[in-house]
Write a structure and sequence with these properties.
It comes from Natronolimnobius baerhuensis. This is DUF1684 domain-containing protein. By secondary structure, this protein is mostly beta strands. The protein is 11% helix and 32% strand. It is built from one helix and eight strands. The strands form three sheets. The chain has a four-stranded antiparallel β-sheet with strand order 4-3-2-7, with no helix packed on it. A two-stranded antiparallel sheet has the order 1-8. It has a two-stranded antiparallel sheet with strand order 5-6. A hairpin with a 5-residue loop joins strand 2 and strand 3.
């Protein structure tokens, strides 16, 4: 991987998002707050948090009911479990291997894998309701497939900016006992 090219592409995506949030009619930032919007806060890009994960595909996906910020439940299917290693800092006592479940809405048109998660930054440096990532594999996954999971792309759900949005909360199986200072911040 060319780290400089990766960093430049990441910074470009972040600039596009800031422009969308500040100006677009569908921005989650309320219209009356957009003039004062100074941009999304981010952790510095860090390739350490761009990891390779091994997929375990669930042939008979379980339904997972996720609570939402508005007190409802949404039905998702747990399709894949991703196992990956992270370098840890001295404060983290767990070993360096972690798992995250990846889901899809119970909908025939859904293609992306949805990965809601919490980590030790949640509620301190990041949104109290957790953060999200999405993966869009270019084919059906098989057990043993290697995927890149880039926590630098972790984002804050729209409900952090406006109560008009109803967002799923990460289920407990996706609560990581490690600090992941990558992606979007929200304090």
């Amino acid at each position: 991987m060319d780290v400089e090219q990766w960093r430049a592409e990441l910074e470009d995506k972040r600039a596009e998002k800031d422009e969308f949030f500040a100006q677009h009619p569908q921005s989650p930032v309320p219209p009356e707050e957009r003039d004062d919007f100074a941009g999304v806060e981010y952790f510095d890009p860090d390739p350490t948090y761009r990891v390779h994960a091994t997929a375990t595909v669930h042939d008979d996906p379980e339904v997972v009911l996720m609570d939402t910020t508005a007190g409802r439940e949404m039905r998702y299917l747990r399709l894949v479990t991703l196992e990956f290693d992270l370098e840890r800092d001295e404060a983290d006592l767990e070993d360096g291997t972690y798992e995250l479940a990846a889901y899809q809405l119970e909908s025939p048109n859904e293609q992306q894998l949805f990965i809601p998660f919490r980590d030790k930054t949640t509620g301190q440096q990041t949104y109290e309701g957790g953060r999200y990532m999405e993966l869009a594999p270019d084919r059906d996954l098989e057990t043993g497939d290697d995927l890149v999971v880039d926590f630098n792309l972790a984002y804050t759900p729209f409900c952090a900016y406006s109560e008009t949005y109803d967002c799923p909360l990460p289920p407990e199986e996706n609560w990581l006992e490690v600090t992941i200072p990558a992606g979007e911040r929200f304090e």
